[in-house]
Design a protein that fits this description.
This protein has eleven helices and eight strands. By secondary structure, it is α/β, with parallel strands linked by helices. It folds into two domains: 155 residues, 3-Layer(aba) Sandwich (Rossmann fold); 59 residues. β7, α10 and β8 form a beta-alpha-beta unit. 44% of the residues are buried. One of its GO terms (cellular component) is cytosol.
Length: 232
């Protein structure tokens, strides 16, 4: 049985499709680079009087800066969160849509499988990108970052459970498409199968080792597989 057949079998068993946002749906920071946003957040913290731990000062991922903020500046979490949301909205204006994702959403919905975006990015930015791309109305829901509670972001399983609640299915009846180990771990802890989006052998190995049931090289591969699944 080749990879395509295994992927089709996995999709056939699913009653709903969950998509991570940054990667499977778009490159949110393609126009406004993530390291630039991370520097802005760190500068905001310093200006507000926070002392950055050395490991935080080296971070170039804004989500990691946000995740660590409660550890050393809990009183500034709301300030950092609001600033990050504003930067995400700015980034949404130039985010590059992932080739094939529009077809993935169409094929999944046409087969009777609702689509929910499950992301550590904020809901307003996700909505803005999906509206600009023209497929917001095809989505059954969006589970964005739990504002004020960064510890509940993926890899915590809560986002998967929230998405299941939207479409009324069990985690085992879904498939999450993601491109990070946090996606795979979140799905595994929730009891949901996952498919890893990997553009290199190294990424593929990392996603497989953290729980990916199958791997795809791009979203067009997923769209082609969805054309071959049975309707619910």
């Amino acid at each position: 049985m080749n990879l395509n057949e295994r992927l089709i079998d996995l999709l056939n068993e699913a009653k709903a499709l969950f998509l991570d946002f940054d990667g499977p749906v778009c490159d949110i920071f393609s126009g406004l680079p993530a390291p630039v946003v991370a520097e802005r957040l760190k500068s905001l913290l310093v200006a507000a009087g926070a002392q950055l731990p050395p490991e935080v000062a080296e971070l170039d991922d804004p989500l990691k800066v946000l995740r660590r903020t409660p550890d050393f500046a809990p009183d500034l979490l709301d300030v950092v969160e609001r600033a990050f949301m504003a930067h995400e909205l700015e980034a949404s204006e130039s985010a590059r849509i992932t080739p094939g994702v529009d077809q993935v959403i169409k094929e999944s919905v046409d087969s009777g499988r609702p689509v929910v975006i499950v992301s550590n990015n904020s809901e307003p930015a996700i909505k803005a990108v999906c509206e600009r791309a023209g497929f917001a109305d095809k989505l059954s829901g969006i589970v964005g970052r739990p504002i004020g509670y960064p510890g509940l972001m993926k890899p915590h399983p809560r986002p998967i459970f929230a998405a299941c609640g939207i479409v009324g299915v069990d985690p085992s009846e879904t498939v999450l498409i993601g491109d990070s180990d946090f996606d795979m771990r979140s799905a595994a802890d929730a009891g949901a199968p996952s498919v890893g989006l990997a553009h290199s052998p190294q990424k593929a190995e990392a996603l497989k080792s953290t729980g990916a049931a199958e791997l795809i090289g791009d979203m067009n591969e997923l769209a082609r597989s969805l054309t071959q699944v049975s309707d619910w």
